[in-house]
TrEMBL record:
Pfam families assigned to the protein according to its UniProt record, in alphabetical order: HTH_3
NCBIfam families for the chain: antidote_HigA
Regions annotated as coiled coil: none
Keyword hit for DNA-binding: yes
Keyword Protease applies: no
Chain segments annotated as transmembrane: none
Location of the HTH cro/C1-type domain: 28-69
Database matches in InterPro entries: Cro/C1-type_HTH, Lambda_DNA-bd_dom_sf, Toxin_antidote_HigA
Stated name of the protein: HigA family addiction module antitoxin
Length: 99
């Protein structure tokens, strides 16, 4: 059976690596990003994912890149879907093994 890492939601990363160490609330960050408070709150509660718009704003504020943030979202989605599809993926014979 395929084994996949525990998916890390980008909101968990934002909360644990940025907001908590900076003692910053989701609302305070939202204000600095010119976003609705609920958008950042829902991200850090892991209810919704990051959009390119949010990634661009986070990158600007935290002096990172939008790709840095979008890669968390992409990895989370791939790992989450891989877990759902694990049984189906096991049934697929890789091309080089099929020959």
């Amino acid at each position: 059976m395929l084994k996949f890492a525990r998916p890390i939601h980008p909101g968990e990363f934002l909360r644990e690596e940025y907001l908590i160490p900076l003692a910053m609330s989701a609302g305070a960050l939202a204000k600095k990003l010119n976003l609705p408070r609920t958008r950042i709150e829902r991200i850090v509660k892991e209810e919704v994912g990051l959009t390119p718009d949010t990634a661009l704003r986070l990158a600007r504020f935290f002096n990172t890149t939008p790709e840095f943030w979008m890669n968390f979202q992409k990895a989370y989605e791939l790992e989450t879907e891989a877990r759902k599809l694990a049984a189906e993926l096991e049934k697929i014979v890789p091309l080089d093994a099929a020959a």
